[in-house]
Each structure stands twice: as structure tokens, then as C-alpha cells.
Amino acid sequence: MNSLRMLRPAAARAVSASRARMAQSAVVLKPSLNSTARQITRPLSIKSLFASKGDNDQSTAIKQPILSQDNLFHPMSESPIPEIRDRATIIKKYGTCPVCNEEHHGDRAAMQSPEFECPDCGLPTHCCEEHYHKGKTEHDKICGILREHNEDEHDLRSGRPMKEFEFPSAQGFDEAINMANWDVFFYTRSFPSMDSDRNMRHVSKLLTYPITIGSVLHESSPYRKQVTPEGLRSLAAIRSILYPKVILAKDGVTMLKTETVNLYLLGARAESTLPPHIWLQLSHLFPQTPFHLHFIGPDTLPPNREPYTTFLNDRLTFTYDNAMYHDYHEKIGSFDPYRDIYFLFAPGIGHPDSREAWKPSIAKALDTKCAMFITGFDQTDVQTDVKAVEEDHGEDFDWILKPTENHFKSLKHDINLQDLTQAICANWGIWGIRGKRYEVTHNTEDE
């Protein structure tokens, strides 16, 4: 009983904080008469407050979770979720036993498929129990990550209400955004409270692409120490468009001069599959600026799908094209370092199978003198890409952002189903370059 009494004040404080947060979310912010900001209302659903008891019971019956939060761990082959059982089948069919791999020096013909499921992580990791115990010391290094992945995948399909995906709308005119890290960003953007690390992993996996872009371009960017003098020049030019100045017309009416910023996402894969409304979170960081996102690359669209352009609203336009960038480049015509920016999410520039294919595209992008930001899924991936670009284009670019860990990387590990020893975080690191600019100097000695 004493322990329960000790918990009650903490619970009461949590409830009070939650109610206060809900109340704040319904506040209408009214700017002064002289302000150019728009009136912003953050809607709060009150359907449940006025629903009848019968409606609530019916809704509860329909939306009953398949799995409870204390029942998320299951061996993959015995999972109640068909999609996860299918994933176990893929691992067993295409995966490899790490002990067999070591014994046979990578000869797949001599290796056996992983049929034995680890009792701790639930994934099929080894060909048999004997090899499991033989390789357990090495497996323990990643076992925790694999179990986390197992539970996260079950949670996403558990049928529970995913409150963490109820993203906020436009930012209030007097509310500053801090881009220091995920925690501070979520707080200053009034995201729903993240009650667990799992919630953070789910949301960061979804938002890592738009918020990585925003974190580089935003005036409160966390990369000030890594930005070079050339980078300051490029970002100053870009931010002059992202943060337009108020212009007072002759008739006394205030106006904002806005220009569309083009974001060229080269080699687009996962980012091109995001629902368009997810990109609103980037748009909300720069409420006065329209964006046109160009998803370019052979994996952008399904095979035989024609390129197309679509609109979400008057500030978000999307173009999807399966062309290689050096071919797409010719369609654009002119480029402006103030309004055109390149982003490459884990492009694999240094991978032996894709290095040659990337050379003409990188060369074309550098010719525009526009900023280019590139991410990698781990430190080795970043270093490999940097080395390849330095060797292939070393005399053609200036550094604008030195390689560093991305503050807005995905907190969720992605697992290679063909090799469970490989676990990565999307957009782990980031760096930036720009085509070299040559300044003409006047030598007085020649006169």
C-alpha cells in the first residue's frame, strides 16, 4: 500500500501535465493587428467526449489491438502477424548462417540456410543449435538490436492506436523551433508526448528524411561548427530565400516575396515512397516558402511507370522520375544556387557496383555550383563515399559541411534480411559539398 501511495502523486502530476498539454493544443493564437502572421488554430478532436456509451463500446470492439504491449515478442516463424512470418521465410531462404560463412569463407554453395531461431531475439540466425552456441559470443553483440527490431515490427502491426503519428500542424507565429536534436525538436514543435524509446524509433524512422533536410537549412541548424566558410556563403544565399523579408508596398500593404525552392533528391528510394503529407513537416519549418521536391533515380517509381508531377497544396509540389540524374539534368535548363539544393540519401557513391554510374550525375550537379548534401548509413559508408568523391571529383568541389553524425538520423535499426549481422540507421551521418568557384584576382605587378 505504501508503494501505491508513493506512485499516486507522480501519476497525478503526469495526468495534470497531459491535460495541460491537451488544453494548450486547442489554443487559438491571435496575432496583433499589425502582424502579418496568420491566425493558427490547433484542432483537438472532441468526438470521444460527445460519443454515446454504445458508440465507444462499438469502437473499442472494432479496434481491439491484436497484441498487447506486454506481448510483442514472438519467434518470427510463429508470429501471429502473417507479414512477419513471411519475413522469417525470406531470411531462411536468402540468409546465411554466420558460422557457416566463416567456416566456408563465404562459399554460399557450402553454407546452410538459417533455420534455428535464437530464443532471445526470435530471428532465424543460425543453421542449427550447435552453430548457434558456437557463434553465440559474436551473436550477443547484435542480439539486443534484433530483439528490438522484432518487437518494433510487432508493435507497428499490433493494432493499437498510434498516437505518436498524430503530427502537429503549422507552428504558431510566436513559437520558435529548436533543431538541436530529436527530443528538443519534438518538444518545440508540440509533437505528442513520446512515452517510450519505441515511439521515438517509429517517428524518427518516418521523419528522418524531411527533418534531416530541414536541420541543415534551418537558421537554428545544429551543424554550425561543421559548416565551412564556403558553406556559410551557400547557406546564407539559401536562407535569404527561406526567410523572405517583409516588403512594405506603396499602398501600405505588407507583402512577402516568396520564391520556390527546388530540392533534387538524387537516387531516391525510401524517401520517394513516403506519403506526401509527411513532407508537410518540412514545409512547416519554412512556412513562407514553397518547395518543389524532385525524386530522381531508377528506383523512384515502379518499372514502366511514367514520370509525373503532383501537388499536395500551394506550397508542396512533387515530381517523380526514374531517369538517371545526368539525363534529367538536361530537362531543367538553368540552376540557381539560391533556390536549388541537392540531397542524396545514402547513395552508395563509393560502392564498386554503382561508382561509375554516379560519376556523370555528380559531375553535372557540381557544375551547377549548388549545395549538395549527402548522408550515409554508418561511419564506414560515409567514409567510403567521401573517398570516392575526393578521388573522382577532388579538384571540382569545395567542402561546405564536414562529415559529421546526423542529429536527425533514424533511431530505428534497419536489418539486412540476407545478413542479420548488418544493422544500420538510415541517415546516420551527413556531409556537404558544392562545385568549386574560381575567383578572378587582379595582379598589379603585370601593369
From TrEMBL:
Coiled-coil zones: none
Annotated Mitochondrial splicing suppressor 51 zinc-finger domain residues: 97-156
Short name of any one Pfam family annotated for the protein: zf-Mss51
InterPro entries in alphabetical order: Mss51-like_C, Mss51_Znf
The name this protein goes by in its record: Uncharacterized protein
Organism listed in the record: Umbelopsis vinacea
Annotated Mitochondrial splicing suppressor 51-like C-terminal domain residues: 233-415
